[in-house]
Amino acid sequence: xxxxxxxxxxxxxxxxxxxxxxxxxxxxxxxxxxxxxxxxxxxxxxxxxxxxxxxxxxxxxxxxxxxxxxxxxxxxxxxxxxxxxxxxxxxxxxxxxxxxxxxxxxxxxxxxxxxxxxxxxxxxxxxxxxxxxxxxxxxxxxxxxxxxxxxxxxxxxxxxxxxxxxxxxxxxxxxxxxxxxxxxxxxxxxxxxxxxxxxxxxxxxxxxxxxxxxxxxxxxxxxxxxxxxxxxxxxxxxxxxxxxxxxxxxxxxxxxxxxxxxxxxxxxxxxxxxxxxx
Length: 278
Known about the structure:
By secondary structure, this protein is an all-alpha fold. The chain has one domain (2-275). 80% of the residues lie in helices and 0% in strands. The longest helix has 35 residues, at 66-100. It is globular, with a radius of gyration of 19 Å.
């Protein structure tokens, strides 16, 4: 039963992330913003929602012991960026080589890639140091938390500021597929518009939150059944599962030679997770 709950929750998370990301692409196209903004901010935040909601729901949940919930939350926070920077990039490279050949170079927008990695390294270093700050020093922990939020705010400003130049250079966002809701409800004459885009965004977000809630309960139950620490399970299982949206989307984008979106989806999610999650 526990495995069934995990499987169903995972499917809901993945479908919700796909629905959310599809709407974000259309939003980016309508707003006439660059692939860097769409990939590193919109798509990154959208596909990072599963692993974001898992620690949030775990810590705020009233089910299970406090220690168990904290282990699930901390494991998900630490494991997510590690999984993105290792397994996700590896899989993206393998699929790129298979589809495009081993000699075909990847061409992401370098300025955005460097910006993402610089801010991530700074933020994750602070997050790692925060782990060693005792609970008896709440002021220091609070200051680090505020600094991390400010880092992400500055990162967004820099990314958005570079958008106009990138659009002029041919890096504008283009949605390859129609809105899922329009395709699903075309028999009712539903037409694409900003209201439909926002409606699909809300639908995807609701599915992601619901799936994450079920996944947390499944992990807690599985840790009790197997007698394994919830921290170990959340470090190994949760990131592999919840990072699937980033993996799948980046693989699809890299196969279609949308390198900026593919890399931005991963590196932007790393910045998001390294700043706002801790």
